[in-house]
Amino acid sequence: MRLRILISAVTIAVTILVFALSIAASAEDSTVTARVDVVSEGTRSKANVVVSLTSLDGAGSTLRSASEAVPVQPPRLVQKGKRFDPHLLVVPVGTAVEFPNRDPFFHNVFSLFEGKSFDLGLYEAGTSRLVHFDRAGVSYIFCNIHPEMSAVVIAMKTPYYAVSNGEGKIVIEHVPQGRYLLQVWAEGASPDNLKSLNREVMIASVDHSLGTIRVVEDSPLGPHKNMYGRDYDAPGSDYPRTDPR
What we know:
It contains two helices and 16 strands. By secondary structure, it is mainly β.
């Protein structure tokens, strides 16, 4: 009888301890906010600026890994109306992204950039392709048939990131307190400009504001080549040349 009472008491004590530790751990997590101010020659939305925090304290047991954040259901970059939807997709490293074709003609999606290099080949309406973004970096996505189509996929090693909304608001939730490297990405900003925005931040409060992040768009994207490094066919063609000549 005494043994049963002792076991029950120990069980209750352990339950209380686990509950207390979980409360303490969650209390240490911070909600990090910021405002993005985009400076450019023309009118520019404040949306689609990516702000990330990478831990400088090492991979502690309280930090979520990016691989744990990989979605079970693959996110989609849909091709419809000769556009990619969404234009920007930010995913954890290791994520598989689906590329369904919802147009009534062929597409040939490709990327030749640092994040992930691939060529999905020609595929028809109603079909889809899958790409694993297994390395960190920025992938600029195009169609080899339609030069007006472009998108960006960013694969992140850190799980602590957010994309600004149309008002420039950034919210990164459940960030463990500690030291972080703040990094910013914006499509129209040069690498040197973005690098100058890097800084170390100390997250030490439940609600932490990074203030206003001013992003200057000094490198707008111009016309691009096809995947062979050549000019595109004449506008209006939905069928490309099958060779680089």
